[in-house]
Amino acid sequence: MKNYEDKIKDLCSQMTLEEKIGQLQQCGPSLVGAFDVSFDELLNMMFDGRISQEEFNRLMGTAKQDFHEEDLRAGKIGSYNGVGDAATVNRLQKIAVEETRLGIPLLFGYDVIHGFRTVTPIPLAESCAWEPELWEKTGRIAAKEATAAGVHMTFAPMVDVSKDARWGRVSEGAGEDVLLNGVYGAAKVKGFQGDDLSKEDAMAACLKHFAAYGAGEAGRDYNRVDMSMQRLWEEYMPAYKACIDAGARAVMPAFNDINGVPCTVNRWLLRDILRKKWGFDGLVISDSNAIAECVSHGIAENKKDAAKQAIFAGTDMDMSSNSYIECLKELVEEGEVPESVLDEAVEDVLRIKFELGLFDNPYQTSGERESQAMLKEEYRLIAREAAVKSMVLLKNENDVLPLKKDARIGVFGALAADKGQMTGAWSIGARPEDCISILEACRERGISYQYGENLSDIQRIADESDVLVAAVGELKEESGEAASRADITLNQEHLSLIKELLGTGKPVVAVLFNGRPLAIPELAEHVQTIVEAWHPGVEAGPAVLDVLYGDVNPSGKLTVTFPAATGQCPMYYAHINTGRPGGKSKFTSKYLDAPVEPLYPFGYGLSYTSYTYGDLKAEKTKDAVRVSVSVTNAGKRDGDETAQCYVQDVAAKRVRPVRQLKGFEKVSLKAGETKKVEFVIPLTDLSYYGWDMEEIPCEGTLRIYAGGDSRTELMKELIL
Ligand code: NOJ
Predict the structure, then answer these.
(1) Is 315 domain-assigned?
(2) Is the CB of 208 under 6 A from ligand 1?
(3) pLDDT tens digits for 448-479?
């Protein structure tokens, strides 16, 4: 990366106090007129279901928006959130460049979470592909489209490890494992940023939410995080570190507190760890309104106090709370905040603007580029590939799938006809008309199907069909931000539909559309076939049919545990054993009214062939453990299998998880073919933290497991 330090210092030295503070201000457009609410509030309204996404898009398109141009001209705005069209971006940029005293260009941020117009599967879904190249590729197309619409920075990736399926935002990350989140996040950073941030199609990645947002108590959004430092460093921090190492140029502190100190004002987190220990010199931008919310947290007296704490802690830019713009001047003039502290924040803002090439080329897009950039056929193909690879075959009794080409199918459930719902949470740029529903895809393929809209249609359609397909699950508003659920079972309407379908005696295929693991014991027990399709994006219909008809052999594997009951949450594979591991006898760690085991474990997923594992070998070298295992495609169809390697430190100085993922590799295997897969686990990846936070090397017996999911029994012991 080019060094801009002299230019940054020089520019900073020319700035007035007001201009400096202006650079730290990010705002969004407010909507005026009949709908006099801020952009943030409008977003909230969409997320909590007061308005639909379609309504949101319509309002954004038609309502008069106030972009605070007067403030912009006066040098009081450094960045915008939520402006995603080339004409507006260029118009505002022109004001910044031509009408402000120093002509400093604006930075435009946007939530590009899983695609911009070409909406790809939600991150949780895509993580089930276990394929870094794919994650990078979809990140790249998101960047190409978003930058064409004027976006310079995306508030992604989210790598908040989440072990609690109740949390709605589990949909936005790569699930419950820390290694997987790190690999996923690093691939996204590369995809978003490309090989040179100054290129027009590169957008800065803003890693979030730092840190441990996914560990909120009881899976409730925004809730407290109280955990040991050992656990924080072993099970959460490595995912963020992997993204910093991959070069993410921005970081968003999380809403939550960690052990009593909200991340937004957490000096230890943002200065000691992020900047000093990890060497990060990019931009730290608060979450929306998070600085002002430190008052509600009960850690700041008022906005001014919150602003002071945040700037000292190292939060450079204020998203939407106006705390900096309202209070920093006074704080500096009163001598409460030294100007040098402010300068550091301003330098971070200028640095990312230089790196993005905004000073040389402030207008990085045009209406023409924008109009040609979206939803290209090649992007749709990638979206379809991603959707297919995300889907997890949970059950397939009697080989109901793949369907025969001439099978007569009955399709049920409103989600089968829905387009808007397929894009899932956080797909602001999505348009329902871009999306292909299941029914449309059936028509396009010339499939002989009947669609039942009412329960009264069921028997007639069943009589005339060979297989019944039920589209059930969650609405997209039921996952994502502010969408935690105290009950993660299927709703009554969907359960009744399934029951009625089963009553016909015809084989039932349940296709699940959801943003989190669901507790579906009724389905697991009675329905013959279950396909977890998640919220698959614009190519939902074709991708579902690719899997149902076996054009592609399903290969997705769960990156989150599916509990059998909500009350088991948080339920995750890398738990510790306790002195009395859950078992048959009464006095063991379990519930009276729920099984010990989950419904479907982490790493699990079926295909239309079967795989066997054998010949597991492990040896210790000077600085690593080397593992090899053979994987055989023992069935009759070619397929892709993700081989996984887990370890257990059997007797350590602190209790250790029963299993921890240490490596994975996806291999393509022809029917009957065997391949050897190797994993190299650096010894440093096996160490852990002691009571005093000293790092302890792993010693003694290490159990090494390899196989197709986290419950594999294939094991080798190695003495370290
Ligand atoms: C709140 C969310 O927590 C964060 O993830 C998002 O990027 C911001 N709002 C901006 O929309």
Answers:
(1) no
(2) yes
(3) 999 999 889 999 999 999 999 999 999 999 99
Nearest Cα to Cα of residue 388 among 402, 405, 399, 374: 402
287 is catalytic: yes
The residue contributing the CA closest to ligand 1 atom 3 is 287
Contact criterion met (CB below 8 Å) for 176 and 582: no
pLDDT at 2: 87
8 Å CB contact between 628 and 616: yes
> Which CATH number do you get for residue 704?
2.60.40.10
Report yes or no: 425 and 480 within 8 Å, Cβ to Cβ: yes
Q: Are residues 525 and 666 in the same domain?
A: no
Give yes or no for residue 93 CB within 6 A of ligand 1: no
State both tokens at 270: 């943002």
Q: Is the CB of 184 under 6 A from ligand 1?
A: no
User: What are the structure tokens assigned to 255, written together?
Assistant: 């809403």
Index of the ligand 1 atom closest to the CA of residue 109:
10
169 CB near ligand 1 (under 6 Å): no
Q: How far is the CA of 639 from the centre of ligand 1 (A)?
A: 38
Q: Which ligand 1 atom lies nearest to the CA of residue 158? A: 5
- In this structure, are residues 312 and 338 in contact, taking their beta carbons and an 8 Å threshold? no
Q: How far is CA 604 from CA 390, 530, 561, 573, 633, in A?
A: 12, 13, 9, 11, 16
pLDDT of residue 168: 98
User: Closest Cα to residue 424, out of 112, 119, 134?
Assistant: 119
Do 252 and 287 meet the contact criterion of CB atoms below 8 Å apart? yes
The ranges of the chain with pLDDT < 50 are: none
Range of the domain at 704: 611-719
Tell me if 412 CB under 6 Å of ligand 1: no
| b/e code 10-48 from CB counts within 10 Å (16+ = b) | ebbeebeeebbbbbbbbbbbbbeeebeebbbbbbbbbbe
Residue 623 CB neighbour total at 10 angstroms: 9
Last residue of a domain, one of 533, 568, 603: 568
CA 420, CA 535: separation in Å to the nearest integer? 10
Give the count of domains, the chain. Answer: 2
Can you tell me the distance from the alpha carbon of 431 to that of 444, in angstroms, rounded to the nearest whole number?
20
Q: Is 562 buried (19+), middle (13-18) or exposed (0-12) by CB count in 10 A?
A: buried
What is residue 47's predicted lDDT score, i.e. its pLDDT?
Answer: 72
Q: How far is CA 429 from the centre of its chain?
A: 17
Report how far residue 238's alpha carbon sits from residue 244's, in angstroms, rounded to the nearest whole number: 10
Cα-to-centroid distance, 234 and ligand 1 (Å): 26
**Same domain assignment for residues 505 and 638:** no
